[in-house]
Structures are given as C-alpha cells and as structure tokens.
Amino acid sequence: MDARTGCNTVTPTVLRRCWSRGLAALGLLFAGVVSAGDALVVDAPTALKLVRADQVTLIDVRTLEEWTDTGVPEGATAIALQDPDFLRKVMVTADRDRSRPVLLICRTGRRSGIAADLLLRAGFLNVANVREGVAGRSGVGPGWVERGLPMLAYDPARHAPAPIPVQARK
C-alpha cells in the first residue's frame, strides 16, 4: 500500500477516494489505473467493475456503424465523438455533475483519448480513458471483446443518451 495515497488496488471505493484527493494530477500509478496527462487510463476489466458498482458513467464514443457491428460494452451510453452535441449529451448523461467520474471507450483508445482531453478542457474533473478500447491495441491491451467482457447488441432505446432539455440547447 502506498502510504501517501492509501491506494494499492483499484476498487470503486479506492478509485473514488483517489479521484477525490486529486491523485490523477499527481500521475500516481495503481493497479489497473495510470495517469496519462490529466486523464486516467483504466483497463477494460477495471472499467467493467466500476460500471457494475455504479461508480462511473461509461461512454462509448464510437460511431453508429461500429455500435451496430460489434454492440456496446455493458453499462455504456453511446455518444459518438463526432456528434455536434457531444459535450451537452455527456453533461446530461453525467447528471450535470462535472465531478462525476466518466470513463470513455472507443475501438482502440485513440478517439476516447481525444474525448477525455475534450471533457477535461470543458471542466470535467474525473475523466478516464479505457485505452485498450473495444478491439484492443498492440502494446496497450487486448480490448474489451478479446477479454470476453460483455457486449450488448446496440439498441437506441437502451444505449442512447437522455434527450437534451430545451434550456440546455441554447
């Protein structure tokens, strides 16, 4: 256990405590999570544990074609990075709470990294990238699918974000 952080494994409680202490900015490493700039990097199994514990909001930033082809990771909301209302939809999905931990995933972790930077610039405080993505990337990790983590067939009724309230569209 790291005496400075009180962190040695990543459980939802430990991650929440570490995020609340601002440890992402210190670039500290702990099991399954590492800092990459100001955004944390989370491996796929850790992401699934956090989603199932309802400690994070998971957002799949891939395209409609990708969601249709492969499905969507369990617990994810589908909001394409290219969507002109991307930031507003993320804000609604995170219950308008910029301190709510948000995990981002795409095919290989590149677009989700861009999305993480975008959210940090927009004032979100606790952002992490599932850098290995859905399909995996050499040198990073095998990916959500290769690890056998649950994918659900894309269903707009289940995976689309809540509608943006009229006052938020201005």
User: Low-confidence stretches at least 5 residues in length (pLDDT < 50)?
Assistant: 1-14, 19-36
Structural class by sheet pairing and helices: alpha/beta
Tally of DSSP β-strands: 8
> Mind describing the biggest β-sheet?
6 strands, mixed
Shape: globular
Q: Terminal Cα separation, in Å?
A: 48 Å
SSE succession: HEEHEHEEHEHEEH
- CATH top level is Alpha Beta
Output the radius of gyration: 15 Å
Instruction: Give the second-level CATH assignment, the architecture.
Output: 3-Layer(aba) Sandwich
**What is the number of independent domains?**
1
Strand content: 15-25%
CATH superfamily annotation: Rhodanese-like domain
Strand order of the largest sheet: 1-2-7-6-3-5
Mean pLDDT: 80
CATH topology: Oxidized Rhodanese, domain 1
Percent helix: 25-40%
Number of helices: 6
